[in-house]
Amino acid sequence: MSRVWVQIMNRFERKSHEYKAIKRYWKIIQQDKRDSR
Predict the structure, then answer these.
(1) Per-residue pLDDT of the chain (37 residues; tens, 9 = 90+)
(2) Where are the alpha helices (DSSP H) in 1-37?
(3) Residues near 26 by beta carbon (within 8 Å), at least 6 away in sequence
């Protein structure tokens, strides 16, 4: 799962809104994926 995160994060510039939002909410997104199984 961390490999996926790195691939996603490398698409954005570090100062972009998308980068900051994904970084901030990644743990929540990851938990939602685990709960839906």
Answers:
(1) 789 889 989 999 999 999 999 999 988 888 876 666 5
(2) 2-9, 17-35
(3) 5
Say if CB 9 and CB 19 are below 8 A apart.
yes
pLDDT of residue 21: 93
Q: Where are the domains of the chain?
A: 2-35
Tokens of 25: 């909410």
CB 9 within 8 A of CB 23: yes
Token pair of 32, please?
């939602």
Distance CA 15, CA 31 (A): 25
Q: Provide the whole-model pTM.
A: 0.61
